[in-house]
């Protein structure tokens, strides 16, 4: 590692140059590189899974890991390169005097490879890294802009799934700017409750009647148009606002249900709940109180939790809801990692098969998987809902398999509230 002569001592934990020393040296190199044709690269590194290590084995062990990480990085950079711990579990590397930028990618690839090996200390642990890369002068002419560009590239890697490297591009900055703008707008939308609800019927193929309605959240964005949850829900979750929105959806549904039941007494609504809200201890009790406030029986509301979320093992909440007469469905079944024993333990009422399987129904392997799902559901006494039905062929095959409930554009597109009551009295199922 390159040594820096400064008055400040190195950082005490890793004995690497302090942040102030690093930035000072980077600025000196930038000034030098303005007069020579050589390039300079900045690598911003973040450890993957470090928080879990701290939470599991404590901060003292976490400090030992940071020291081991610093040593491993030093062993794999050039003597002329500069390494510093930026803070927490972040490190930065500068590669000066570059005549061939391929050196940068080779270093990034080597670091990703060497961090596949475990750290063997008091415990054996695996710590991966994610790397963002910026280049002088292409991505900036100051330490601040180069570090920011590398950080933007790192942010993109973390969103893609970590343990990769990414070069900064102006497009990444544009994407980040758009995300920041959307964050401000979604915070405002939450405060003003400017979301809207759509309703899509689920059809009972045995009676050819509507068995209930899934409540679908939409956001009428002022410039982007009507957005689905896939376009804004991850952002809400990262901002910690998903639980707040869940409460609003449930309240809004029950308020409308109280009015609509005067015309259609057998209504039932299926509402998807985020993991953030489902995991909160007061959730089951809050749903019970919401039903009581609107003088509604518990069976009008059925909740759905996604198999791809991380809360399916929370048996207490599901059992509390069941005690109130509120059933719970496992949504997007088939694409998560459900332990089959949990299907019996948790007490789900129905499985909602992910639309992907219905859309790929022409594949023989998919038909085998679906038949297996139907068999499992039958053995556990669970109802099955097939989502995403869009063709007569799909519907006919599901009928042959005695799938009782279906949902999709073939039967009805999601409807705004104004179209709701008319459809609730119709036979929407093809004969």
What does this structure look like?
The chain is of the alpha/beta class and 431 residues long. It has 2 domains: 19-168, Alpha-Beta Plaits (2-Layer Sandwich); 185-424, Alpha-Beta Barrel (TIM Barrel). 44% of the residues lie in helices and 22% in strands. It contains 16 helices and 16 strands. It has helices at 19-33, 50-57, 59-74, 102-114, 143-160, 170-192, 229-238, 242-260, 275-278, 283-293, 315-323, 340-346, 355-359, 364-379, 392-400, 420-424; strands at residues 39-48, 82-87, 90-98, 119-120, 124-125, 128-136, 165-167, 195-204, 209-221, 225-227, 269-272, 301-306, 328-333, 350-353, 383-386, 405-406. The strands form 3 sheets. An 8-stranded mixed barrel has the order 8-9-11-12-13-14-15-16. Strands 2-3-1-6-7 form a 5-stranded mixed β-sheet, with helices on both faces. Strands 4-5 form a two-stranded antiparallel sheet. Helix 2 (50-57) runs antiparallel to helix 3 (59-74). It starts with 18 loop residues before the first helix and ends in a 7-residue tail after the last helix. The relative contact order is 0.08. Residues 1-8 have low confidence and may be disordered.
Task: Please describe the structure with a list of short key phrases separated by commas or semicolons.
16 strands; Alpha-Beta Plaits; 431 residues; five-stranded mixed β-sheet; eight-stranded mixed beta barrel; disordered N terminus; TIM Barrel; alpha/beta; 2 domains; 22% strand
């Amino acid at each position: 590692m390159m040594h820096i002569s400064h008055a400040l001592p190195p950082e005490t934990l890793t004995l690497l140059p302090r942040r102030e020393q690093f930035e000072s040296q980077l600025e000196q190199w930038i000034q030098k590189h303005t007069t020579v044709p050589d390039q300079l690269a900045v690598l911003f590194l973040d450890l993957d899974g470090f928080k879990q290590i701290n939470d599991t084995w404590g901060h003292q062990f976490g400090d030992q890991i940071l020291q081991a990480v610093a040593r491993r990085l030093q062993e794999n950079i050039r003597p002329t390169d500069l390494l510093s711990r930026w803070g927490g579990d972040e490190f930065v590397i500068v590669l000066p005097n570059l005549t061939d930028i391929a050196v940068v990618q080779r270093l990034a690839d080597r670091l990703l490879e060497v961090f596949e090996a475990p750290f063997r200390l008091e415990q054996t642990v695996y710590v991966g890294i994610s790397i963002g890369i910026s280049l002088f002068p292409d991505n900036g002419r100051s330490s601040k802009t180069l570090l920011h560009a590398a950080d933007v590239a790192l942010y993109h890697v973390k969103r893609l799934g970590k343990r990769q490297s990414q070069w900064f591009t102006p497009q990444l900055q544009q994407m980040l700017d758009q995300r920041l703008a959307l964050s401000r707008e979604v915070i405002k939308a939450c405060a003003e409750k400017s979301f809207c609800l759509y309703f899509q019927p689920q059809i009972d193929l045995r009676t050819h009647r509507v068995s209930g309605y899934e409540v679908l959240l939409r956001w009428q964005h002022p410039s982007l148009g009507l957005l689905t949850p896939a376009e804004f829900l991850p952002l809400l979750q990262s901002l910690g606002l998903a639980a707040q929105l869940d409460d609003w959806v449930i309240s809004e549904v029950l308020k409308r249900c109280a009015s609509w039941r005067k015309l259609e007494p057998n209504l039932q609504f299926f509402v998807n709940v985020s993991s953030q809200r489902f995991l909160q201890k007061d959730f089951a009790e809050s749903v019970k109180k919401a039903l009581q406030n609107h003088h509604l029986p518990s069976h009008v509301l059925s909740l759905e939790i996604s198999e791809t979320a991380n809360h399916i093992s929370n048996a207490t909440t599901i059992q509390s809801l069941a005690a109130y007469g509120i059933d719970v469905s496992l949504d997007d079944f088939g694409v998560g990692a459900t332990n089959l024993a949990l299907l019996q333990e948790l007490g789900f009422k129905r499985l909602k098969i992910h639309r992907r399987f219905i859309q790929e129904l022409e594949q023989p392997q998919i038909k085998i998987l679906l038949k297996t799902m139907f068999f499992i559901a039958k053995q556990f006494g669970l109802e099955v809902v097939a989502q995403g039905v869009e063709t007569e062929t799909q519907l006919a095959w599901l009928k042959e398999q005695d799938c009782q409930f279906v949902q999709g554009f073939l039967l009805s597109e999601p409807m705004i509230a104004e179209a709701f009551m008319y459809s609730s009295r119709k036979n929407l199922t093809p004969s």
